[in-house]
Design goal:
Blueprint: H1 2-9, H2 16-29, E1 31-40, E2 43-44, H3 47-50, E3 53-58, E4 61-66, E5 69-79, E6 85-91, E7 100-101, E8 103-108, E9 111-117, E10 133-140
Antiparallel strand pairs: 1-2, 1-3, 1-10, 3-4, 4-5, 5-6, 6-7, 6-8, 8-9, 9-10
């Protein structure tokens, strides 16, 4: 497992210090996250529509679950050295399979804010839901 994680996070241009930072950050975000608020294209998604939605992160894998059913899968690449921090997803299922969705994230205790752009679009520069962008607020399950 450690070898696989090291291999997956050893990207060109990243030194050993950055690799250690990536692994430490990965440990912080691994787990199951419950969606508590969401916006898309500057529209707030009603609570009843997001109820039961979870995000599961394990090693480099990410799974979106709605009401106990796996909806989307992917692989993530973290860049916690960027400001704001980057979380990119290579979509593993659905109509956008194989495409990259570029995003930014922020961790504060057991809360994560994730701002993710639709595949094939530029990375968001701020935490907003403008221009085909999702803004998610998630709470880590204990």
């Amino acid at each position: 497992m450690l070898f696989l994680t090291l291999f997956l996070f050893f990207l060109p241009g990243i030194g050993s210090g950055q690799l250690i930072q990536n692994l430490a950050e990965l440990r912080n975000i691994e787990g199951t996250w419950t969606l508590i608020a969401a916006e898309f294209n500057e529209r707030t998604i009603p609570e009843k529509e997001i109820a039961g939605t979870k995000l599961v992160i394990s090693a480099d894998k990410i799974v979106f679950v709605e009401n106990g059913k796996k909806e989307l899968t992917g692989r993530i690449v973290l860049r916690p050295d960027q400001s704001p921090k980057w979380l990119d997803v290579r979509v593993g299922s659905g109509v956008n399979e194989g495409q990259w969705s570029l995003g930014i994230y922020q961790l504060k205790g057991d809360t994560m804010m994730l701002c993710q752009r639709a595949p094939m679009r530029a990375r968001p520069r701020e935490f907003s839901s403008k221009e085909m962008t999702s803004l998610l607020v998630l709470k880590k399950q204990k």
